[in-house]
Structures are given as C-alpha cells and as structure tokens.
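Ticket #698: bound-state structure for calcium ion.
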Amino acid sequence: MFVTRIGIPLRARLAVAATLCFPLLAGAAPADVDAARIINADNTPGDWLTYGRTYSEQRFSPLSLINADNAKQLGLAWYANLETNRGQEGTPLAIDGVLYVSTAWSIVKAYDGNSGRLLWSYDPLVPRAKGVEGCCDFVNRGVAAWNGKIYVATFDGRLVALDAATGKPVWSVYAVDQGGHYTLTQAPRIAHGKVIIGSSGAEYGIRGYISAFDAETGKRVWRFYTVPGDPSKPFENKAMEMAAKTWSGEWWKGGGGGSVWDAISYDPDLNLVYFGTGNGVEWNHSVRSAGQGDNLFLSSIVALNADTGEYVWHYQATPGEEWDYDAVQQLMLADLVIDGQPRKVLMQANKNGFFYVIDRATGKLISAKNFINISWASGVDPKTGRPIENPGIRYDLTGKQITMLSGPLGAHTWHAMSYSPKTGLVYIPTQEIPWWYAPSKDYRPYPEGWNLATDSGAAPDFTVQGYLQAWDPVHQREAWRAPHKGPWNGGTLATAGNIVAQGTAAGDFNIYRADTGEALWATPTQSAVIAPPMTYAVDGVQYIAVLVGWGGAYPLMQGVQSAASGNLRNISRLMVFKIGGTASLPPPAPQPKFALDPPPDTASAETVAAGEGLFNQFCAVCHGGGVVSGRVNPDLRASRFLRDDGWFDILLHGGLQNAGMASFGRVLDHDKAAAIRAYVTHRANLDKQTGGNDANIP
Ligand code: CA
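RESOLUTION: The complex was predicted; output attached.
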C-alpha cells in the first residue's frame, strides 16, 4: 500500500495557530514540525526536533555558545522534580523554546525551556501491574513531534497523539497486540508522515514487529514482522519466506522473538527506515530452532521502504544468536571518507562488542572491529560479513556453563552515543560486564515469565568496567577514554563547541573536550544518570538538559554489582544547565537506615533450595540476584512481610499491584510462595551475620 503524507494546508495551519493561546511564541503553532523542518534542522539549531535531534541520529548539535573554553562556568539553570523515582531513559525534545519530556510510566510533560515552568502534563495511567510484563523497568526513551502533535508510546502498548498545546489526547491506538507480553519503551520516530514504532517483549515470548501509523489519524499503514510465523500458514511477504529457511523446529510456538525496542533511523534521500532487532525466544538456540540456522531476522539491522514497509536489505550481526545480543542499538547515519571514497554509512556499537560501519544504501559491511576485548569471536569476515566465532562458545551444544564478554547487558546498549563531524569521533558509553550461560535443565515454557531455556548470571571473579570511549569509525580504533566507577552510565551528547556531555551512574554530570577527552567540568546530580543529555537554545541562551534517575536492567538484576557503579540514592529529576546558572538542588533527604532484622531461619535446606529456584525464575530479574536490590525495587531482605502473612496477599492476590508488584497467583501457590519467603529469609539471615551488602535500599 502506498500512502502519501497527509499534511494540513498552510492556510489551515495559520488558522489553527491563531486560535491557540500558547505562552511562548504568539502566532506560531506549538510543535509545528514537518519533514522539511527535520531535514533542515541545522537552520534552527536551537531546536531538538526528534529523538536523535535529526534523522541521522548523530546527537550532534551545531550550537557552540557553550564550548570547551567556557564550560567551566556552567551552572544549574533550573530543575524539575519528577513523581516517578524509577529509571529515566528519555531524551527531551526542544521545539520553539518548549521542552517535551517523557518519564518512567510513559508520562509526558511540557516545560517552558527558559524558566522551567510546567506547561502541561499527561499521564496515560498505565496499569501498574503491567510493570511485571516488561524485562527492564517501566522506562520510556522519548517522544516524537509532528504537525502540532506530540506522540508517546506507552508501556502497555498504546501509541498516543497529544495536542502539543495542551497535552490532551487527539487519538490513541494499540500499537502492539494485547493479551500477550508486548510492551513499549521506545521513542517513536516520524518518517514521511508516518509514526514508526516497534515492540518489546522477546524475553517473555513474542513475535517481533515494527509498524507505521498515519500521524494524523492513527490508522496503521504497514507492519513488518521480524521473524517468520507458522509455516503452515501463508507467509506475509517474500522476506518471511526467505527468513523461514533459516529456522528449524517449531519456533513459532514460542513467538520467535526479534523485538524492535530501540533504534529506528530514516534516510529521507533513500526513503529507507532502518531498525535493529533483538534476541530470539528462547535464548537457547537448540531449544528455539533445534540448534539449526541463522534465524533471520534476529539480531539484525534491517532496511525497509518507508512508504510500504517492504523489505530492502538486512545485515545480521549475530547469526544463530543465543547470548541476548540484541542488535537494537542506535543506528547512526553519517557521510564518511573511507579509503579515499565518500561513503554514506550506518554505524552501530553493538551489544556484542563490534562497531559496525555499513553501506546504508546496500546493507553491505564496510568494516567491523571490536571496541572492547570480546571473548566470543576473533573478528568479522570482511567477505561474508559473518562473525568468526571462537570455539566452545555455544552452551547449547557443549551443555556446559560458559563465560562470555560481552554479555546480555551489552558492550553498549540503549544508552545513546553521539558523533561529532568536527572531530570525526563517536562517543560511546561503553561497558564490560562478563556473563555466564548454561542450558536450563528441565526447561518448559512459562506463559507468565521469561522463556530463555538458559540459566545465566553475572560472571563472578571478573572485573566490570564502564567508561566513555571516543571511537574513530574510519580507522576503527579508540582515540581516548575516560574511565568511570562502573558500568551503566548515561548516553552522550556532542556539540560544535568541542564538548561531549555525559552523566554517570555515580551521580555526576560531566563535560569533556571532544577532541582530547580532557575533563572540563563536573557537577553532582545527587542520583545516577543513565539518560543521554541534549541541548537547545532559547532567546540566545544555550542550555544542556538531562534526566536523572537510576533504573533499567542492570540494577534490577545485579544489585550487588551495580552498587559498584557508585549509585547512592534514587531521585528522578530533569536538570538543565547554562553558562552562569546559579540555581541549586535542595539537600537530599537523609538516606534511610538499612537494617536487616529477619525472622529466624528455620526452614529446611530443601525448602530453601526450592525457594531459590523459584526466586531466580520469577523474582530475581526485578529484585536482584541473591536478593540484593539495586535501589530500584524494594530490597526483600529488609521486607517486613517476611514476618507477616501479607506476603501471600502480595504474591498471590496482587496486594501491591497498584505499586507495580503484580500478582503471581497464576504460577505460584501458597507452598511455593512460602518457599520463596524461606529463601529470602535465609539470605537475609546470612547477610545479617556477615554484615553483607547493605548499600542498596532504594
Ligand atoms: Ca534482550
């Protein structure tokens, strides 16, 4: 189906503008964004019009009022407290002096960019019990803007168009199928008048897809599945027929996976939409696909015709993947000179540790180089584009526990990177988190939980690292790095002022010289920063804005380890800086005293062991391996419900579902809930004796 962009004639637009009462720019309609405005974004450098500022997703701003010479004079201009002390992963948009911000639980807010005054707030009222159906926190990465509307994808799967002037919904549709484990955390992008949005949920069991909706009406225009369905039914298109040849067994029964949860970019000249796809369901290749085949289009970069959603090309980064190597990381467009030739490229710093440079017209690999010391492959074959796997890395075949670098948390994941055409460097929030994997014994699919057929965890006795890494994509080598305390730091921003900005998990916000990495300025943020900063200008003043707030997969799963990144407490805020800013944060409330006072550890070893297995299956992904929380969810070792039968009401009957703790009554009974409590009590007693880790109460 070919659908042309629906636009409002200029006269009608002016009429709309005249009827609006908007506080900042009389006569200009709020969020009056169209394709020409995004394509010509450098003509209005004070704006940040789409998730990565431009269609290139470079996160480079031509603004230079804040620069390497005056960065030392930065200060806080204003801040806004958020009501959700959860992971904040969003990038604000700035359009004509208004900031549009999305926060945890898919709440959207508009602020006056100069004063910080709240203009409106929209809460989609996502049912909190839905939280348990997402792998990695109730986060949201951003909104899109088009023709007077702001678009947000909500955690429970809606795509909502808001009136940019008032925050009132204009239309709302379900962008993913209901009743399964689909969620949405991605920032929508708008190409050719269509809102493009993917799907999350491959750890649970979904069939991934990406869809396009008419920006004016919400009507679905196209959908592209990332993995083939039941081959006894007709394939949706030739791409699915091709993909099905790379699968074995009965993969469609588990959904197949391949969610599209982060990168989307668009080349308006080629009219191609690019996106990355996630891992398979199950992770274990032998269970998922009888150990056979590449499993297209898992862990791939795919290009589609923006108008029709028809397949154009793909590049699969990790064929037959089984280590959660989602290839969804940011897909950055750039024009580079490589070997003396101008090339239109797509760049990705993949979870699997390779930095890919790809011809974005054809999908052909130009170069690939590991940007961390990976253990799973010795390189990428330049002829075939396939990784050269090291022996013994496929745990499904060896049946043994293997340790890998990188792991499922990625050498780089959703924390956005930036690129400066001035320095020619890409600024990557890089991390090294080794992980072990083994086939699950006696695996059977669970409709309520993760379906990996893989046991895994952070590899003990290995050092974790996190650093800002400046990478030369032409020569595929590191230019400089700035070390941090640990992994899971913020995304990055590069500007024409020769600066790179990044917040850290240790609770500070930093400015570096873009060419050398020299640290120029830092300020405490009181809480961890994982979101990428952005910059904008109003009335001749340049600002840098960043969301503060700790969360996401790493602290949810790895409480002990993530504490080493330096996170001290969890406060969610929007912070905005300018040269000469004199605002200050209120002093943080005293940290609550964390005291372990569990009831006696009286359960049998058998019960505790059974409880440990159940905890690892249903609880650990949110409450932390070893029952040590990472300051996002409550630390159950200190729960008063260890002494109180409210425990059963919560686990089996949804007693705290309005706080985000869903009922597990469909998969647990009283005995199982009691076994989990016995295990948690056991862990609390152990840590009370040893002094344990007490740094992680949220
Ligand atoms: Ca994944």
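RESOLUTION NOTES: The radius of gyration is 24 Å.
TICKET STATUS: resolved
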